[in-house]
Design brief:
- It is a single chain.
- This protein is α/β, with parallel strands linked by helices and 313 residues long.
- It has two domains: 195 residues, 3-Layer(aba) Sandwich (Rossmann fold); 94 residues, Methionyl-tRNA Fmet Formyltransferase, Chain A, domain 2 (Roll), CATH 3.10.25.
- It has eight helices and 14 strands.
- The protein has a seven-stranded mixed beta sheet. Strands 10, 11, 12, 13 and 14 form a five-stranded antiparallel beta sheet that branches.
- A hairpin with a 4-residue loop joins strand 12 and strand 13.
- It is elongated.
Length: 313
């Protein structure tokens, strides 16, 4: 290529922002940024613009916020810009074939896993929950499947024992921006070589719901501890004590030979909230009542005592 490819960028949440900034800094002409509409959020139902929109406004880029991507009007808005390339990062819509095929070089997606593992909407969270030791970011050429396109490049990172979904997200997002620049550089040099995925090795990371955060105390302590980290900051692992929802942010595994039923607060640990699991026990380090502040366990128990023998459900 004699010049940098002209790009239409599609993305919505915080994860997509470093990729948009990377494209801009790399000098790719960005003719349009497509993101989801502003939405109501929070108890006050305040209208909030997507992080990608806020970034695009700062960069002075044109913005489009369609409710759907399946109309002729949207297709014409994309095709009419005659892009060389689409770059899609956590956009939140499945794109029709005619959109994917409208650019000269197709559409690149930046995905937060080492494909073909963890296709789908929540790869960061499920990698932690499932106890993976490493993950990464992949760029791929998009097709009409769910994260099934040919792989262009990938980069790995370790998942640390104390990683939450939030901390891992904050490492993978800029890594995705860097990998995107490398991928476009390979397109410019004519050296990119898309490699088909091994579909037999694929697994899926479905979108999380609030209900997925509820803890099953019959599971082993190590699985519960990973659930707490993997669902922090959203939807938050939780349980109930006397109809009061408790959200958990941090915990540790405690080897234990208790005979208590799962979910029971174990006696003998007055400054600790140690809960029996299906195997071993979980010590909650940081938590929050549904309408309260996030507190370390000692401060929480000072205001809300939970006696031994109580059962979390």
């Amino acid at each position: 290529m004699n010049s940098k490819p002209g790009v239409i960028f599609m993305g919505t949440p915080d994860f997509a922002v470093p990729a948009l900034n990377a494209l801009f800094d790399y000098g790719c002409p960005i003719s349009l940024v497509v993101t989801q509409p502003d939405r109501e959020k929070g108890r006050g139902r305040k209208i909030i613009e997507p992080p990608v929109k806020a970034t695009a406004l700062k960069l002075g880029l044109d913005i489009l916020q369609p409710e759907t991507v399946k109309t002729d009007a949207f297709y014409e808005a994309i095709a009419g810009r005659r892009p060389d390339l689409l770059v899609v990062v956590a956009f939140g819509h499945i794109l029709p074939r005619r959109i994917l095929e409208s650019p000269v070089y197709g559409a690149i997606n930046v995905h937060a896993s080492l494909l073909p593992k963890y296709r789908g909407a929540a790869p960061i969270q499920w990698a932690i929950i499932n106890g993976e030791k490493e993950t990464g970011v992949t760029t791929m050429l998009m097709d009409t499947g769910l994260d099934t396109g040919k792989i262009l490049m990938s980069t790995k990172t370790v998942i640390y024992p104390d990683d939450t979904a939030g901390s891992l997200h904050d490492r993978l997002a800029p890594a995705g921006g860097d990998l995107l620049k490398q991928t476009i550089a390979s397109l410019e040099a004519g050296t990119w070589q898309p490699v088909p995925q091994n579909h037999e090795a694929a697994n899926y990371a479905p979108m999380l719901k609030k209900s997925d955060g509820r803890i099953d105390w019959s599971l082993p302590a190590e699985r519960i501890e990973r659930q707490i980290r993997g669902m922090n900051p959203w939807p938050l692992a939780h349980s109930f004590y006397k109809n009061m929802r408790l959200n958990f942010y941090r915990a540790e595994i405690r080897p234990s030979t208790h005979n208590a039923p799962p979910g029971t607060v174990i006696s003998g640990f007055s400054r600790e909230l140690r809960v029996a699991a299906g195997r071993d026990a979980v010590s909650i380090l940081e938590l929050q009542a549904a309408s309260g502040k996030r507190l370390n366990v000692q401060d929480f128990l000072s205001g809300t005592p939970i006696s031994s023998g109580s059962v979390l459900q």
